[in-house]
Amino acid sequence: MMEMEYMREIPNNQMDRRPRKRPRISTWETPQSSKAQSGLYSGQEVGNITSFGPSRVHLEHPSHFVKGLVHKGSPPWRDDDKDGHYIFELGENLTPRYKILRKIGEGTFGQVLECWDRELREMVAIKIIRSIKKYRDAAMIEVDVLEQLGRHNKNGNGCVQIRNWFDYRNHICIVFEMLGPSLFDFLRKNNYRSFPVDLVREIGRQLLECVAFMHDLRLVHTDLKPENILFISSEYVKIPDNKGTLREGKRLPKSCAIKVIDFGSTAHGTQVHNYIVSTRHYRAPEVILGLGWSYPCDLWSIGCILAELCSGEAVFQTHENLEHLAMMERVLGPLPDNLLRRADSRHAEKYIRRGRLNWPEGATSRESIKAVLKLPRLQNLVMQHVDHSAGDLIDLLQRLLHYDPTQRMKAREALRHPFFARNRYRL
């Protein structure tokens, strides 16, 4: 049996050659030597983490990676683990073309490996999908979306670029350009301190341009969050703290260029959908209330992301629907009557009583009530962290976080907002 059943090469002219405190598992860690990373590895289900970390090797010396290696041949056949994850050893081949250097991400879908592409002589990130039918099917949908985005990539649209994909030992493998840390990883390394407002502006501009591009193609990402937005470069500078020391100083990226990843949940926006989408903290109210969703759910997620970058922490840190809706009301004001009346009774009967949110009566605990009460209003949240452009940013967030999806600001409309009229971010 041939190990590599099918390979699809992406045209070279589409390639980009540029070499909270809430508990989350992250993958941007201090690099270790390859000798320290030996043994067999397999992915574990640790949440929907797909962050691509920075390269731990020097691309200007590619011979370092291939010296003394056998360029042909594959490792011995190994059974997958009990969950269908591919088991590998660092330093071995993933097909004769790619050498595995380290694992840089993992999640329910499988795992992401940093590899050396011997043919193009560059670092790549390879997403290896679990050998289970539903994940393989989802991976093929992601490949279709990525190829569609690539075909229309004329001016650099902010979406990660697929290099190649293939089926290897019953695992769909998707090859991507290598990128830097995610926004969440950068926040975490910065001790969840807020980004400067000019950096928030530039990230927001690029994110909206990417989403506008997707919406023009009638695609809805559905899972926008800081973990799925990566800096192109991992380089940063450190600014001294108030005492003039660098040890506790704040990190700032040398480049604010970003790309969006993880299109495995992308949906077509030509119809209204009813199933649950988005990671909890970035989930729009129409999704929770069972009202059906489409393009506007992406704009709600962007509003949540920009508010998080502004403050350093996710605004809606919760894992329960009623508490989530109560947090929205605390930060943004009461949910409108027309939305509550239209709410799907199957989804909302536990949350709505006598035409209003069943809060605090329906709270699961006193701690839940306290968690809601400690949240500031949106205006106060922004003004605590922004010393200029606060008014424009507040207005933008209010329009992105509009409860009614039919009234929520669209991506191209948001790009024309006064908040984005100022000068571009510079260190």
TrEMBL record:
SUPFAM superfamilies: Protein kinase-like (PK-like). PROSITE patterns: PROTEIN_KINASE_ATP, PROTEIN_KINASE_DOM, PROTEIN_KINASE_ST. Belongs to the protein kinase superfamily. CMGC Ser/Thr protein kinase family. Lammer subfamily. Transmembrane segments: none annotated. This is dual-specificity kinase. Residues 27-41 have a biased composition (Polar residues). Residues 1-41 are annotated as: Disordered. GO terms for cellular component: nucleus. The keyword rRNA-binding does not apply. ATP binds at K134. GO terms for biological process: regulation of RNA splicing. The keyword Nucleotide-binding applies. PANTHER family: SERINE/THREONINE-PROTEIN KINASE DOA-RELATED (PTHR45646), SERINE_THREONINE-PROTEIN KINASE AFC2-LIKE ISOFORM X1 (PTHR45646:SF14). It catalyses: L-tyrosyl-[protein] + ATP = O-phospho-L-tyrosyl-[protein] + ADP + H(+); L-seryl-[protein] + ATP = O-phospho-L-seryl-[protein] + ADP + H(+); L-threonyl-[protein] + ATP = O-phospho-L-threonyl-[protein] + ADP + H(+). Its EC number is 2.7.12.1.
